[in-house]
Amino acid sequence: MSGAYRACLAHGCNLFDTAESYGGGLLGGWGSSERFLAACMREGGEAAAAPPGPAPVIVSKYIPLPWRLFEPRCMMRALQATVSRLEVEAVDVYLVHSPVATFNSIKTLASSLAAAVDSGLARHVGVSNYSEAEVRETHRVLAEAGLPLAANQVEFSLLHALPERSGLLDACSELGVGVMAYSPLAMGRLSGKYSAANKPRGARRFGDLPFERIQPVVDLLARLGRQHGGKTPAQVALNWLVCKGAVPIPGAKNAAQAEANTGALGWRLSGGDVGELDEAAVEGSLKLGQHG
């Protein structure tokens, strides 16, 4: 995966998304994703021929576990640990991983985000999986502190178009809140690699649609890709998100996958193309931990 990191930077893609809770498998456990990213950055910085392009922009997240809501310093301690694991002076964008609509937590978490910026350990702050109402409340609290709400990171793809259809996208645009789209390829289901006869193996958390419903969307992506000079279904799916004003954050396990993702940039679907995809898109539904 370090090859994927270098390939991203070499192609000008410099936003890297992680979280304190990401890890497991080959990476280890809690915080291991942040430590792995730190190793990639260290290796890149020490390389004799470091990849050209902009410096990395790091996004990480604080998970508001229930017992953390009663201790205001919990976010600050978590942020300090994140900064240490990442081996940076400050996190570029620090997000609340998911909303907890109890104990007046939306306001409390927003105030903690403001404190994170004041501490100098986070340059910008945002949220993830927040509903329109929660975004508005967080935006209000941060505005009172003289701070912008940088982003709301939500599941958004052609198989989960709910953020647009619910009005969340419009609300974020109105407030000047950026939208980051996670699972932009629906855990690979929009890549064109899979079908009803060749389903992905293992657990795919956000894959509750039958392939009979997915295949027409993939077929349309393939057709539009051919019309745009041989773009892949995945590249078309990512470009659709760019056309919606979102920043897609696709995963990549190796340099080849990272380079393929960059093929979504430097061109644009037509208005007619976007309209066709809008009609084919699946609204989707909210899952555990998602409010928006």
TrEMBL record:
GO MF annotation, one: oxidoreductase activity
Domain of life of the native organism: Eukaryota
Domain NADP-dependent oxidoreductase residue range list: 5-280
PROSITE patterns: ALDOKETO_REDUCTASE_2 (PS00062)
Any one of the GO CC terms: cytoplasm
Pfam family for this entry, one: Aldo_ket_red
CDD domains the UniProt entry points to: AKR_AtPLR-like (cd19093)
Alphabetical keyword list: Oxidoreductase
Protein name per its UniProtKB record: NADP-dependent oxidoreductase domain-containing protein
Organism listed in the record: Chlorella variabilis (Green alga)
